[in-house]
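Hello Y.,

Per our agreement to keep a running log of every chain we model this quarter, I'm adding this entry. I've kept the format consistent with earlier entries: sequence first, then predicted structure.
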Amino acid sequence: MTPLVLLDLDGTLIDSSEGILGSLRAGFTAAGLRVPPPDVLRTFIGPPIHDSMRRAGVPEPLVETVVTGYRTEFAARGMYEAALYDGVREALGGLRSAGLRLAVATAKPEVFAVPICAHLGLTPLLEGIVGAPLEEGTTKGDIIRRAAADHPGAALMVGDREHDVEGAIENGLASIGVRWGFAGPGELEAAGATRIVESPGALVATVLELLGPVEPERPTA
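Predicted structure for the entry above:
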């Protein structure tokens, strides 16, 4: 079976910081809380949002209020305030040309991830888009596991944060950490990324180095 490469969305394929940060500010304001400084807000990009709220010290009774305010603003405006990183479309095309299958595995709720991928023209390049449910409790490892079950042949996870790497390890997959996203200094190394790349232009060669030659699928009779 042709190998499948799983790809994170925020911080890996798209720079979604403008829409996410603006929506977070709206959520904190709606709950009557002081808006955290930008460096704290940026840590919300990537991990499950409820986990980020608690790490930022949001009082438990207000977590859902902030999340609801965030999602209301994000659905109205923020989800479309995103752009592909330079070189990402070319990298995905190169992976496809090498014979690889691609799917998104993101902690972003699937109800947002699917229209965002369509809006940015990613959907035709992907075999599937697997995201989180709106309810809390789903880890990146859970999402990777479901993506691998829905799309057999998963061999590798590409992402920008530690939870991408940890989820890959949990599922027995190799991982590539990308430097252009939202990881802090040393985060990807500490998590145990198999490889780390500095730019989208280096992604194709690194994927092929890890997976080896891709055998074309033979048509069945």
